[in-house]
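User: I'm preparing a small set of examples for a lab meeting where we compare how different chains pack in three dimensions. I only have the primary sequence for this one, and I'd like the structure in C-alpha cell form so I can line it up with the others. Please keep the answer compact; I'll paste it straight into my notes.
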Amino acid sequence: MTVNYTTYDLRRGQDKINMKGRPYVMALSWDSFHPYVYARILAIYRVKVLHRSMAHPTNMDILWVCWFMINKKHKAGWKAKRLYKIQFIPSLDDVRASLALCSGTPIR
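Assistant: Understood. Below is the C-alpha cell output for the 108-residue chain.
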C-alpha cells in the first residue's frame, strides 16, 4: 500500500507500507494529550465500496491495526527534552487495542 504525505519542508513524499518491513503508522490524534497516535499494522484489506451518493464502486484500503498507548508516567516533551515512550495497550480485550483504520488516515 502506498501512502502520500507532506514532508517537513512542504514537499511531497510517498512511502510504501510493507508487512515484511516496518509496518508502523501514525495518525492524527483524537485526544488532546498528544497530537498523534501510533499503531502497528496487522493486515491490509482492499474492499469495494458503493454508497448511494456514488455512481460507481470505488476501492478502499482498510488497515487492521494494533494501537500503541503513550506512557503518561514517563516525563517527556519539550520541557523534559525527552521523546515520549509508547507501549502496546496491555489488554487485548480492550476495544482500543485492535481496530480498523481507513487508508486515508495514516500520516506516515
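A couple of notes for your slides: The longest strand covers residues 36-49. The radius of gyration is 16 Å.

User: Perfect, thanks.
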